[in-house]
Amino acid sequence: MTYEQFLVPIDILFGDCPPLAERLWIHRPYSSYEVLISTAEYIIFPIGNGKISHQETFAPSSRVNGGLPLTEHEILQVVDAAPRLGTPVTMLPYMSKDEQTRGDLSSQVPIEQHTLIMTLRRLEQLNKAYEQKYGFRFVLFVDGRTRAEIVPIMEERLAHGQRDQEMRIALEYIIAIARSRLHKLQRSKL
């Protein structure tokens, strides 16, 4: 398998994230995609008690990645590989498009165009404020939630979150989203 071929499932599961892809490439081969995701989790999070300090967030154990820990810049690239919530549907990758629109499409209450426009504008404002405050994108496991349901969650995390806590949440969601995407793909193959 070439590196370019290897990137196809990485991009589907995690988005365009070169630092993570490079670390995962080093650790191949994988017996399954679940093992690949578990390896990504190991790369992203330090070994320990599950609690992460600011320093640990950006400097995982030297045993991780064969002694090549992710730098702060690389961790930010992992988080920022997630698309912004409220991004126009035409600009979203396939899996993100499905995840970000499913809640709106399955809602029992039709969404008025004006309400949708106002919600998208609010999400754009919140994205900017969040990125300005924390320095990285807001990440949420949105699957099944409407955009309107995301707004108060984002407002709450923006108002009361701490940077380290928000980074931890974002990284946990990235792993959860990858596992969810894998399960959807596996179910669609059956």
From TrEMBL:
Identification of the protein by name: Oxo-4-hydroxy-4-carboxy-5-ureidoimidazoline decarboxylase domain-containing protein
Domain named Oxo-4-hydroxy-4-carboxy-5-ureidoimidazoline decarboxylase: which ranges?
1-182
Q: Keyword set for this entry?
A: Purine metabolism
Against Pfam families, the record matches this protein to: OHCU_decarbox
Tell me where on the tree of life, at the top rank, the source sits: Eukaryota
